[in-house]
Every structure is written in structure tokens, then in C-alpha cells.
User: Fold this.
Amino acid sequence: MKKQNTTPPKKALVADWPALTRTFIKPEDEAARSTLIKYMEQILFGLHDFLKKHVGFTEEVSLKDLAGRFTDTVISKNPEKKLTDVITGLIEDIAPHAVNVASPYFVGHMTSAIPFFMVHLKTIVTALNQNVVKIETSKVVSVVEKQVLAKIHRLIFRKSDAFYNEHIQSTTTTLGCFTENGTLSNLTALWVARNVLFAPKNGFHGVEKEGLPAAYKAYGIQRSVVLVSRRGHYSLNKAAGILGIGNHNIVAVEVDEKSRIHIDSLNRTIKEIKNSKDKTAIIAVVGIAGTTETGSVDPLSTLGEICAENSIHFHVDAAWGGPTLMSEKYGHLLKGIELADSVTIDGHKQFYMPMSCGMVYFKDPEIMDRIIYHTNYVNRPGSVDLGIKSPSGSREANSLVLDSALKIMGSGGYALLIEHGIETAREFADEIRKRPYFQLVTPPELNILTYRLFPAHLQKQILGADAEQKIHINEKLNEINRTVQRLQREAGNSFVSRTTLKIKNHLEQDKVVLRVVIMNPMTTIEILRKILDEQEKIYKTVFSESRL
Ligand SMILES: *Cc1c(COP(=O)(O)O)cnc(C)c1O
Assistant:
């Protein structure tokens, strides 16, 4: 979009009633209609260039320089700009320095391209501006939400028709709730689990009313914990902080070589906790269906059995992997998820919704009664107000976006996306295995894998090395991988992320690895090969092999 050269002299903008009322204009006559359409066109086509050109997080303009441009703290009394100029400013000054997460070369994070119809759906949600905290500001939208919750609940738990007929529109039971993100969903699941464990009894009114110290006293314990593999998402630590459990009490259980929770270690930990002198309660065991770092899926069936035997709340963090259930080909990878008491799924990840949307589901439709809140003016007992059992207050109608997307895509459409991700990740893993400069670190179970630059001569060296030399070589590798990742990002052609896999095996060290998440249907194996070529080239340019 070009700036016009012949701009007429601008009238000073003033904050007055005529200007104000114009901002509340609706598309009710021809003039208003063409103005509003003009703005939408400006946005949709203005961003076209941005979506085509830029990739990743480049150093073309440094973050420091950008920060220098955003230091004004005074809100001007009169309007500074008209809408059209604001849109132009966003397109010309902001978008070029944002990150084009939609590029097929942007494969480093769980944020990627979304189907373009999401822009339209989000617009209608904004135009309706329903607040689903209560029926009085949402009416039909709240019952739509209950329907969508039941659809996803069914995908996870596969209960009978009779079960869904009973609960889908029930005003007293709840199958789950929408939240802002996976972090809040995990918090909600642990909040419920905590309150179930420390329920009211013998004069104790429950942990929600009396707090943890009173709960520990009533239950004769000193500490409560949550068990999750060492690949657990840090939102669980936040939840433990907020819930007063303390994040030291998120106990990290060892993982096997495929980054899945080590079952013997888990059993041992449960036994130790049961026999420990500090009386300790287990609030939940968390299984992960798609770890953030490696995409690994814990053995959910086994975890479900262990939790049932020990009467422990079983939460599955399927923020990433949940939608895999829509694929008939790969849904079995999440076998055992139906044993969960609660499940987290993110809408803005593999449901390809715009930022942001989380969801949490519960097998028992009455369990959310543990977090009921009523007030006098809304959320009265027996109403459909969705704010009664939710960590959030006011909330947007995200269910409309998900429900519409499910209709537009069908589970078959989503399955194609999921299958493309898993199959392309497998092909990519084969490609990495073939290349002498690379080592595959965690093969993909879903559509995430990690690998690292590990040139053949160092692979040979490490074979004959003693413990100390191994540590030295690993440090060298960590430096190589950190550097290559950074330089590739700065070059701006493509983006992979990096993480450090903590491996608590005294023979092995923490590994810096490159991480690839394949969720963009436009990301092909050819693109991935080019990304490897570039990494190899950066390595050869920067690290002359004689230096090592
Ligand atoms: C992304 C993710 C979360 C957190 O979700 P947010 O939406 O980023 O808050 C939790 N657990 C797992 C496994 C995730 O991948």
C-alpha cells in the first residue's frame, strides 16, 4: 500500500462528541458500508506483503533500536490519528518487525500458519462481542459452548449417547470449560484435583474455604505434591505456586530414552512418598500427550492404571497432542487418554485457532462443583452462566470459532493436517539420520523432533573418549548448536528453535538441541532439507574443523 504524495492539509483532530459518535458507527447505510469495507480491505491486503516476505526474528532492526522507538508515556488529549492512519501505521511500522509465524520456513515453535477463515471468524466474534461469563450477555452462545465442549469431550472420553444427552445442556453439570490458554487449563485441572483431595470433612470446610494450612491439619499431612515427568510444562510450576502447593512440590520423574515418563521411577516415587516420614499427599499424576520440547507421549494407559490403583487424580496435559485424536491413522498414539480425570487441550495449537484459546475437560461431569462460585448479580445457582465454574470472569466467545472451524474442516480436514505433520516429521528424521553432520536426538512420536549438529569427526572422537573428554566434546557441541541456531535466526531465511534437554544420567550431559515443530501444511521435506543445508553451511563457515 503506497502513501499518497498529494495529501491535503490535515484538519486538527479533536476529541468531541461528533468525532466520538462517528467511532460507534455501524454499517447501516451505503456510505458507512463503503468506509468499513475500505478499512477491511486495507487490513487484509495490506498484510499480504508481510505474510509473504518476512520470516522469523531477524536482526535487520535490533530489538534495542525498536525499544528506543517506544518510549513515550503521555496519552495525548486529542486524537493523534484517524483509523485509516492507524491501520497504515500498523501495516508499515509494526508488521515488518513482527514475526511471520505463517512462513513454511518458520518451524521452531507451536505457533504457525492458521487457515485464513479464522480471520473472518474472529471478526464476527468481535462484532457480536458476547461475554460468556453469564447468559444475560451471551444467551445462545453459552449453549453453543456447552455443545462444543460435549463434542470435544466425546472425542476424548467416548462416553455413550445417553451420557451426552443427559449432560450436554444440563444446567447442573459441566463437561469442561474454555480458558485463555493451556497454562490456565492446567491450573484449573490442578485446582479441581486439589479441592477434591482436600474436600470438606468433620468440621473442616474444605481447602477452597479454609486454605492449605487448615487442610493439611485436617488431613494430618505436611506437604502435597504433583508428579510429572521431567519434560512437564512449566505452567504446572506456576499452578503449584498459585494454588499454594509450592512449585518445589512439582516432583520431576525421570524419563526414558524417548523422553517418556519412566514407569519404574514413577512407581518408586509413589512408594517413597507413601512411606516417607513427612506425611505427603499426591494431588495428581500428570501424563503428557505431546511434550512441548520433544512431542513425546507418556504411556497413558499405564499411568491411568497406576492412578486408579492408588486413587490419584490423573491429569493428561494434551495441550499440544490432543487434536491427534481426530486422525483415524494416529489417534491410537494417545491410547489411554480416556482414563484421565482431566485433560488440557489448546485451541490455538493443533486446532489452528488464532491466539488464544485453552480448554480443560473432566470425565466426571460433577467434579467442577469443587470450584463453584456464585454472586448475587450473576452466576446464580442453577443458571447456565458459564462463569460459575471457571477460573476466568469475562471471556470471549471462542467456542464460536472452534465450532465453526470444526464445521468448515471436518475431523477429516484436521486429520490431514495432523497426518502431514507426523509424516513429514518422520521423513525429516530419516533425512537427519542420513547426514553425517547431524544426529537425531529425539525421533518424532508426533510432529516434533530434536536433533543437533554433531559432525562425523566428533562422533568418531566421542567413541574412544573417557568421561572427561566426553564432557568436553559435549560442551563443544552445545556451543556449536547454540551458535548455528542464532546465526540462522539472524539471517532470517528460516527459523528452528533450540532447547536444552536435561538428562539426569551421570554419564551424559545436558544437551543443547535444535527443535522442529511441523504444523504448517506448506512445510515440505524440500524446505526442511534447505534448512539443514543452511545449518551445515553456517557450521562450516564458522567452525573451522581444525579448531576443534
Ligand atoms: C503449550 C503447552 C502448555 C501451555 O499452554 P499455553 O497455551 O502456552 O499457556 C502446556 N502444556 C503443554 C504440553 C504445552 O505444549
